[in-house]
Amino acid sequence: MKKDVLITISGVQSDELKDSDKVEIVTSGSYYKKNNMHYLLYDEIEEGQDRITKNIAKFDTEGFHIIKSGSINANMSFEQNKRSISNYITPYGSFLVGVDASKIDITENDESIKVDIEYSLDLNYEHLADCQLHMDIQQRDGMENFSLN
User: Fold this and answer.
1) Confidence class for position 1, pLDDT limits 50, 70, 90
2) Could you tell me the pTM of the whole model?
């Protein structure tokens, strides 16, 4: 059964010079849990554009996987101490993106789920940044009997 949720995604990328870029988006989405796997569906709208990217996030205590389709196309996996490489296709070109997650922490209660990921990011096999991703998934107000179990 799908549940309406409010999703806050914030991220920080720090390069070797310790310069940091921070990003935050807030969007609504749908959540469900099946066979101990969490599923999250939401759309991202590119700032200043009409382009939409649909996202499907699938996660459990072992890893976090996201499939992007639309303006951006990618299939990325974050698994602790495991490197993954994927094609990241944008309107501006295609890139090889590598991620090496050093920490994945998922905390859940009856009303929310918090996902924290720390990872190294490289672009076309060159280290780009050390990153932190925080996702806060909250039940929408006015919902009754919301359960993540």
Assistant:
1) very low
2) 0.85
Residues 6+ apart with CB under 8 A from 10: 22, 23, 24, 133, 134
Tokens of 29: 């989405």
User: Are the beta carbons of 63 and 76 closer than 8 angstroms?
Assistant: no
Spatial neighbors of 40 by CB under 8 A, at least 6 apart, are: 5, 7, 29, 30, 31, 55, 56, 57, 58, 59, 137
**Domain boundaries in the chain?**
3-139
Could you tell me which of 87, 89, 112 has the C-alpha nearest to residue 7?
112
CB count within 10 Å of CB 79 equals 16
State which fold the 3-139 domain adopts: Lipocalin (2.40.128)
CB 75 within 8 A of CB 86: yes
Q: Which two tokens stand for residue 103?
A: 């920490």
